[in-house]
Amino acid sequence: MTAVFSIFLLTLLVITALGIVRTRNLFVAVMLLGIFSLLIAINFFILDAADVALTEAAVGAGISTVLFLGALALTSERERLGTRHRWLSLAVVASATLVVLYATFDKPRFGDPNAPVHQHVAPWYLEKTPEYIDIPNVVTAVLGSFRGYDTLGEVFVVFTAGIGVLFLLSARRHGAAHRPPGERDPSGIGLREHVIPRVVGRLLVPFILLFGLYVQFHGEYGPGGGFQAGALIAAAFILYALVEGEDRTLAAVPQSWLNALMVGGALLYGAVGLAGIALGSNFLDYSVLAANPVAGQQLGIILIEAGVGMTVTGTLLSIFHAFAARDRA
Amino acid sequence: MELLGLYHYWVFVVLLMTGFYAVVAKVNLIKKLIGVSLFQSAVFLLYITMSKVSGGTAPIVLPGMVDPLYSNPLPQVLILTAIVVGISTTALGLGIAVRIKEEYGTTEEHEIQEIDRR
User: Residue ranges of the alpha helices (H) in chain A?
Assistant: First the structure.
C-alpha cells in the first residue's frame, strides 16, 4: 500500500516539476514550487526521514515561497522571453538524462539493507549513540556531536549568505526618492485592514512560536532541532509581518536584535568548541563539559542546537526584512 | 518488482534534468534560480532514497523495541543541513537578481548581455 502511495507521490512530483518549468508566469511557478516542496516533504517522511521532512516543510514550502514572492515583487511576474536554443538545450539534457539513467542500473535496489551506504559508519552511529550520548534521536546525535564540524561549517555558510544578502540589498537605490522619516508608508502595513486574515494570523502566531520552541528543545528526543526550529520561528514572525505590517514586526524585534542573534548563534557554537579545548580535549569534544562524559555530550548538543536555532532565525528573518524593505525604498 | 526498486532513482533523474533544463534553456534569471532549486531538491531526494532500509523505521531509538531496524541517519543529517543552506544561498541569488533588475531594468539574460555590449 505504501509502495503504491509513494509511486503516486513521485509521479505527482514529476508532473509538478514539469509544470514549474513550462509555465511562463513566474507567480504560478513559485506557487507550484511550494507545492513541490510539500510533496517532497511527504516523500521524505515515507522514506523514514522525519527530521528532513520537517525541515523541508518549514523551509521549502514556507520560507522559500515567501522569499521568491518578495523577489518577484521587486523584479517582474512574467518571463518575457521564454527559451533560448530550445533544441540544443533539449539535446544536451536528453543525452545527460540517458547517461544518468544508465548509471542507475548499477545502483543498489531501493531499500536494500546490504547497500554499501549502510555498511560504513552508519551502523556504528546507531550502535554507539545510546552508549556515548544517550539521546533517542540518532540524527540529532550525529548532527550535533559525531559530525559537529560539518554542522559548524553549515552554520557559517548560512551566516555568510545572510551577510551577503544584507550587503546586496541594504545599499541605497540609485536615484530613488528618499522618504522623509515619519511619513506613513501605505504598502508597509500588511493586511492590517483585512479583518479575517488579521484575526486568524494573530491567533496562529503564538502557537507557531510555541511549536518552534518545542521543536528546538525536544530535538534530542523526537524529530527536530535548531535548523527546523529556526525556520519555524522565522516563519511565525514572517506571518506576523504579513498580517500586521513590517513596521510593527520591526518594533517588536528590531534589526539589531536579529543581527545579534545571527552573530551570537555562530559565536555560541564556536565558543562551545573552544570550551572543549580549554578543558583539555579536542575542538567540539563535548564530553569534558560536565563531570560525566554523557552529560557533557548532552549539554554540548543542547548548546550548539541553541546556537544553530539563533543563527537560522536571525538570518532568515534578516533576509526577509531586507527583501521587504527594498520593496518600499 | 526488480524495476520498481529503481523507480525512485528514475524520478530523481527526471527531476534533476528538469531543473538542469530550466537553468540552461530559460532566459529569465528568477526562472534559472527556480531551476537550481529543483536540481537541489532532486539531489536531496537521491540521498534520502539511499538512506531508506526496507522494513526500517526513523532512526529514533526508543526503549522496548525488539530487534529494531533503523534507516540510515547519516544521509538524513547531510540533507537536513543542506536544505537550510540551500535556502540561504538561493536568497543570495535572489538578492543578486534584484540588484541586477535595479541596475539594468530587466532580469532577462539576453537584454542584460546587450546592455553590457553597448
Answer: 2-22, 26-46, 50-56, 64-74, 86-104, 122-132, 138-141, 148-170, 195-217, 226-244, 246-252, 255-278, 293-328
Q: What does the alpha-carbon distance between residue B56 and residue B63 come to, in Å, rounded to a whole number?
A: 16
* Domain boundaries defined on chain A: 121-175+188-329
**Rounded CA separation A94/A96 (Å):** 5
- Supply the pLDDT for residue B45: 94
Residue B10 cell numbers, joined: 528514475
Chain B positions touching A318 (Cβ under 8 A) are: none
- Rounded to the nearest 5 percent, the helix, strand and coil shares of chain B are 75, 5, 20
A30–B34 CB contact, under 8 Å: yes
Report how far apart, in Å, the C-alpha atoms of A109 and of each of A112, A125, B49 are: 6, 23, 10
DSSP string for residues in A48-107: T-HHHHHHHIIIIIIIHHHHHHHHHHHS-SB-SS-BSSHHHHHHHHHHHHHHHHHHHTTS
Q: For residue A46, what is its C-alpha cell?
A: 515515507
Rounded Cα distance, B82 and A4, in Å: 29
pLDDT digits (tens, 9 = 90+) for B51-79: 999 888 888 888 777 778 899 999 999 99
pLDDT in tens, A202-241: 899 999 999 999 999 998 888 888 999 999 999 999 999 9
Cell of B110: 539576453
Check residue A134 and give its pLDDT.
87
Per-residue b/e over A25-64, b at no fewer than 16 CB within 10 Å?
A: ebeebbbbbbbbbbbbbbbbbbbbbbbbbbbbbbbbbbbb
How many of the other CB atoms lie within 10 Å of CB of A112?
Answer: 16
The upper half-sphere exposure of residue A194, i.e. CA atoms within 13 Å in the direction of its Cβ, equals 12
C-alpha to C-alpha distance for A68 and A39, rounded to whole angstroms? 18
HSE-up of residue A51 (Cα within 13 Å, Cβ side)? 38
Q: How far is B39 from chain A (nearest CA, A)?
A: 10
Amino acid at A288: V
* Per-residue confidence (pLDDT) for residue A120, from 0 to 100: 84
ipTM, two decimals: 0.94
- Decide if A325 touches B, using CB distance below 8 A: no
Tallying the residues shown for chain A, one arrives at: 329
* Residue contact A20–B34, C-beta within 8 A: yes
Distance in Å, alpha carbon of B117 to nearest chain A alpha carbon: 19
Longest dimension (CA), chain A: 67
A64-74 helix and B29-51 helix, angle to the nearest 10 degrees: 170
Whether residue A79 and residue B31 make contact (CB cut-off 8 A), yes or no, is yes
